[in-house]
Specification:
With 419 residues, the protein is mainly alpha-helical. The protein is built from 19 helices and seven strands. The model is unreliable at 1-34 (pLDDT under 50).
Length: 419
């Protein structure tokens, strides 16, 4: 195995590879653990400057030596940071990849196994147990995979890159503060390529603000302590503004003649108003207290499921700024608590739409006098709202959903203006 390929492996995975001889592993680890200056002078110069800055930040010499004295440059991290998905992901693909019967059943088992702990945390924080388990399932498959990068290596690599240097420099210093506090040793600080760590994938800054020592051993251990991981996640959600006693949302039925232009996270109405418009809960019960406000989401357009989402949905999006993620967290939590699957499944869409096509679409909408936000190739809420406005103008169902027919119609309309 060439040495360059070994850059893609964490020290942890290398040490556990039984196919490699002990002597080869020892030699390779020794080479990989050389100081930064050995193989990459520019990286070495960056780390040298960072050592001085870390002292100014109040980080101990011992931790500076442990971390920055052995840090490695990881080309794979830069590759992953630069990589963007070529195609936009549909809600069906996203949702079906994350919500399945195995994950639901495993979540229910863990909810039962840790019921006493989770009940205590819920009483103290107001965060329902099934939501903590749901986040756990989506972040690391219930602790099955934390990532396979040494966090300090990943963060140092990104800190010495020009794209987001300031952000990752501070995250690296925060990681060093965690080591300084004695919560974890550097070798056990394993996480994602971008520095997210532990059962709940906290960034170092999130760890410092919200991590808690629940098991009372004097350390905030989000890798080896489930009490610490669950209690820290609950503290994070509470500080983000979670409203105790309020659910995330629910799947609903819409009447045949529904005005889909009312969909969108920024269009809040109370349950009484939604009921007057013919919106009903799939459970057959009332939507909820009439004064409670909610917004309507149709992530697959009028042919897929519809959801009314509450303030707590927006709290979930402060954890991860993706509507698809927040819908998955909410639905998985419901399933773990005993609910059935979706009443209306999202339609499977086999046609792929590339990011470049979305970028052109955003430019086309702007040329038509419809603001879709920055032409970044990301199909976000601003772009979906702009699509809805185009659909309204052209007497289509204004659900804001992008398919090839809408894409072609917008391209043709914009092309007609330039003739």
């Amino acid at each position: 195995m060439p040495l360059i390929a070994l850059e893609y492996f964490s020290i942890k995975s290398l040490l556990h590879n039984k196919k490699l001889g002990a002597g080869f592993v020892a030699l390779t680890v020794s080479l990989l653990m050389q100081p930064a200056e050995a193989g990459n002078p520019q990286f070495g110069e960056c780390i040298s400057r960072m050592k001085d800055q870390a002292r100014v930040e109040g980080i101990s010499d011992r931790t500076i030596s442990q971390v920055l004295g052995n840090v490695r440059y990881l080309p794979r991290v830069i590759e992953l940071d630069r990589r963007q998905p070529e195609f936009t992901q549909t809600f069906a693909n996203y949702f079906n990849a994350r919500i399945n019967e195995e994950r639901v059943q495993r979540g229910r088992e863990l909810l039962a196994r840790h019921r006493a702990l989770l009940r205590q945390i819920e009483q103290e924080s107001g965060i329902p147990a099934q939501f903590l388990v749901s986040f756990w399932g989506l972040e690391t498959n219930y602790g099955g995979f934390f990532g396979d990068f040494r966090v300090t290596d990943s963060l140092a690599t990104l800190a010495c890159d020009t794209r987001r240097s300031s952000f990752f420099t501070q995250e690296l210093f925060n990681a060093m503060r965690i080591v300084d506090a004695g919560d974890i040793v550097v070798e056990r600080m394993i996480g994602s390529w971008a520095g997210a760590m532990g059962h709940m994938q906290f960034m170092p800054s999130t760890f410092l603000r919200y991590a808690k020592d629940i098991d009372g051993d004097g350390r905030r251990d989000l890798w080896g302590s489930i009490p610490d991981a669950m209690g820290s996640a609950a503290n994070f959600l509470r500080q983000l503004g979670w409203v105790a006693g309020l659910n995330w949302g629910q799947e609903v039925r819409l009447p045949p003649s529904f005005d889909y232009s009312l969909a969108g996270r920024d269009q809040l109405m109370n349950y009484a108003e939604w009921e007057r418009l013919g919106v009903t809960a799939v459970s057959g019960t009332s939507l909820g207290p009439r004064e409670h406000k909610a917004a309507l989401l149709v992530p697959s357009g009028h042919q897929g499921p519809a959801f009314l989402v509450t303030q707590n949905f927006h709290v979930i999006m402060r954890w991860n700024r993706s509507e698809f993620y927040a819908l998955s967290v909410g639905h998985l939590a419901d399933r773990i608590a005993g609910a059935t699957g979706l009443y209306r499944l999202p339609p499977i869409e086999n046609v792929k739409i590339s990011r470049e096509q979305v970028r052109q679409l955003q430019k086309d909408l702007l040329s038509l006098g419809i603001d879709a936000g920055e032409a970044d190739g990301v199909l976000g809420s601003a772009t979906r709202k702009a699509i809805s406005r185009f659909q309204q103008k052209t007497q289509r169902i204004a659900d804001g959903h992008l398919d090839t027919a809408v894409l072609i119609a917008i391209r043709e309309a914009a092309s007609g203006l330039s003739r």
